[in-house]
Amino acid sequence: MIFRKLFLGVALVAIAMAFTVSGCKASLVPARQGLVMRNLELPVRQMVYPSGLRVLAERDARTKLVGLFLVVGAGSSSDPPGKEGLAHYIEHLAFRSRPFGKSGLRRLLERAGAGEWNAYTSLDATVYHEVGPASSLGELLRLEGARMLAPVTKLTPETLSVELDVVRSELREHNETGFMGETLGTLQKAVFPEGHPYARPVIGTHESLTSIKVDDIKAFLDAQYQPDNMTLAIVGDIDMASIDAIVKQELPPELLRARPAKARPVFPEQPPEPPAPPPQLLTRSTAAVATPELWIGWSLPRAFDADTHLVGMIEDMAAEGLSAAALRSSYGAGDAGVRDVIFVDTGVVQGKDASMLVCRVGLQEAADPERSLKHVLDQLPEIWDEPINHIAM
């Protein structure tokens, strides 16, 4: 989820408690207890192998658990034109893969003791993770290595078809029976220039999903699922001194030894120029919503390397500043467009080329959406003034 829950209209309940104490012995009163904070150290180790694979290990011994997080540097922006949704489809197929025989990866992870596992696809990355007991680290690494080496293997045409139907169901849920995905896609088209990969939906369309063939899957895996385009993070109760030896023992040698270098995309010098504002500031659409909603989008700097802190700062300031629109609406002052705003949620869609700030505004009746839009946008100057006020204080 990219939106934060805002809890509005919180009721404050005063609870009065009366205590009657008589004849209480001092020995029944617990002694004053001091609060002692434990020293917490989370050592990190980085290992880079001849193949280009990077492994990050972080020791956290507070629980006897370990988590594996595989980041593949390819998301929906790597989908070939007309094949939108391919990266997300492959993410699904990776859990269907049968690396060692009849059992799929889902079942193998469960047998290894993984209590939680999942994955997601974003604009620029596909992320897999599993969490299990620290004693299962070796087996979890072996399974993750099998997925890294051959993400989609031993799948029948029937399995490919069934999983494609699962992706289609997600598309219907978010974009057809729901409205979030379709609305977000509309904002992407408005914020990013035509033809840019960020202007396309991560999940694709029914037409693009139908066009995906087995050869498309193989070509994508050959280009993107390579060791030099992967980072594996191991976090938990691990022995930092022996983790390198465990990685070399459990991961397939093909993932570690040197390979012919492949050209990788680099960060652009400048982010893409956003398109010109539409002739009409508001675009109306019909969706199954509880109350009318207003969605606003802005382009932001990319959320990686030197510009990461800027995106985080803007996200925090926007969440606090724009929410004032709902607070001031609750005062009951102003015209109907001002009083119509009932909540404001904000979030950021991050990307390596650029990012997008999304503002979701709930309305009571949408009697005057243009005025409600202006009311929200009127909070923007105060966002930039806020740090100055803090400094002056």
UniProtKB/TrEMBL annotation:
Domain Peptidase M16 C-terminal residue range list: 211-303
Presence of the UniProt keyword Protease in the record: yes
InterPro entries reported in the protein's UniProt record: Metalloenz_LuxS/M16, Pept_M16_N, Peptidase_M16, Peptidase_M16_C
Protease is among the record's keywords: yes
Key words of the record: Hydrolase, Metalloprotease, Protease, Zinc
Ranges of residues in domain Peptidase M16 N-terminal: 54-176
Record-stated family: Belongs to the peptidase M16 family.
PANTHER family: NARDILYSIN, PROTEIN YHJJ
Protein name, as recorded: Insulinase family protein
